[in-house]
Design brief:
Residues 1-140 form the N-acetyltransferase domain. One of its GO terms (molecular function) is acyltransferase activity, transferring groups other than amino-acyl groups. This is GNAT family N-acetyltransferase. The chain has 150 residues and is an alpha+beta fold. It has four helices and six strands. It has a single domain, classed as Gcn5-related N-acetyltransferase (GNAT) (Aminopeptidase, 3-Layer(aba) Sandwich). Strands 1-2-3-4-5-6 form a six-stranded mixed beta sheet, sandwiched between helices. A hairpin with a 4-residue loop joins strand 4 and strand 5.
Length: 150
C-alpha cells in the first residue's frame, strides 16, 4: 500500500524504512526505547507490520504493529519527526493503519502511551476496561543498562 498526499508518501513497504533514522529517533528522542541497539530496531522492523511517512525520500514518521494478523495487534514506536509535526500526519498515518487489510477483524488492538491519548481516542482506543487482567514483565531502562535478557 502506498498513498501520496500533499507531498508525503505513506507506505507499508518495510524496504523503504530508513533503519538508521528510525534507530536514531528511538534511541535518542523517544521516552520508551532510549539507548536501543540498532540490531534490535532492525529485528523489530523485520518482524512487524511497518508503516512509514516520507517526504523527499526522508523518513518523516514511523509506526509498527506487532501482530498475528488474525486476533491481536499491538501498536508501537509511533512518531513523527519534529519538523513535520502539526501537519496532521499522525492522524493520516493512524487512519491508514487502522484500515489496513491485514488488521481487519482482529479481537484486540492495543498500545501504550504516556502523552498521546487524545490522538488514539479518535480511533477508538480507550483505557483498559479490566486492567486487573493484565500482567507484564517490565525491565526499566533495559537498553541503557545493557541487559536485554529476562
Amino acid at each position: 500500500m502506498e498513498i501520496k498526499e500533499n507531498g508525503f508518501i505513506f507506505s507499508d513497504d518495510s524496504n523503504l524504512v530508513d533503519v538508521t533514522g528510525v534507530h536514531h529517533y528511538l534511541s535518542t528522542q523517544s521516552y520508551w526505547a532510549k539507548g536501543i541497539p540498532i540490531e534490535l530496531v532492525q529485528k523489530s522492523i523485520a518482524n512487524s507490520l511497518c508503516f512509514g511517512v516520507y517526504k523527499d525520500s526522508k523518513q518523516a514518521g514511523f509506526a509498527r504493529w506487532v501482530t498475528d494478523k488474525a486476533t491481536f495487534a499491538y501498536l508501537c514506536d509511533v512518531y513523527i519527526e519534529e519538523e513535520f509535526r502539526g501537519l496532521g500526519l499522525s492522524k493520516k498515518l493512524m487512519s491508514l493503519m487502522m484500515f489496513h487489510p491485514d488488521l481487519q477483524g482482529l479481537r484486540t488492538y492495543c498500545l501504550a502511551t504516556l502523552d498521546a491519548h487524545g490522538l488514539y481516542s479518535q480511533f477508538g482506543f480507550k483505557q483498559v476496561s479490566s486492567p486487573e487482567k493484565l500482567m507484564e514483565i517490565r525491565i526499566q531502562d533495559i537498553y541503557l543498562n545493557g541487559n536485554n535478557k529476562i
